[in-house]
Model the fold of this input.
Amino acid sequence: MLELQGLRKQFGETAAVAGVSLRIDRGEVVGIIGRSGAGKSTLLRLINRLTDPTEGSVKWDGQDVTRFKGRELRRWRRRCAMIFQQFNLCPRLDVITNVLVGVVAERPLGPSLLKMFPAADRARAILELDALDMAPAALQRASTLSGGQQQRVAIARAMMQEPDMLLADEPVASLDPVNAEVVMEALQRAAQERGIPVIVNLHSLDIARRYCTRVVAMAKGQVVFDGAPDQLTAEVVDRIYGVRAPRPPASAEPLKVVAAA
Done:
């Protein structure tokens, strides 16, 4: 279980994250929504300790992650796998080697630099690719893949880390609708089959409603909504974004908005 307690990140006079407290359980797919600059990306960076909080704490199963240093911190970052909008693959390497990068930190450096990975690692990489319908492309250069295919390879690489948690920062923002569905379905399966929390920053309200078990909205660094996707009515979205939003299906129930601190 992940617990954020009074989490705050200050940049000069600006609070990018302002006193966020959340509890996220295993198996949840939590969509973080909000306008650009609301603090969504900073929140993910605080969770995996790519940046340090000004105040507050991040706890995993009772352990205070904000106190981790050195080897313990590096291990946490591996356990907290991150997927980015820009894929971050090496275009000149083949697909399977890109996936095997997920275990480099746990293997001897010399053989890894020579792309000499144990057979067991290669077998695991193929299985991860197969789960995403990408095994046939294992020997292709990453540069030959479409954006959606590259994002699936990035997810396979993250799964190679055997993470306790999966963080995704706008993973479908640059994808067409079909590939966006494939990627979101893969994140859903990771949560359901591996029993890990998946936290994903999203701009699309439709995707949040379809694929997330829970939606958290941020504005000016604070949580202003925390509820089920079907409670994300047009009226609630108006308050989050300050603009008129497309109305969800008529079956959606209204929900009160969490007051900003």
User: Anything to note?
Assistant: Residues 177-194 form the longest helix (18 residues).
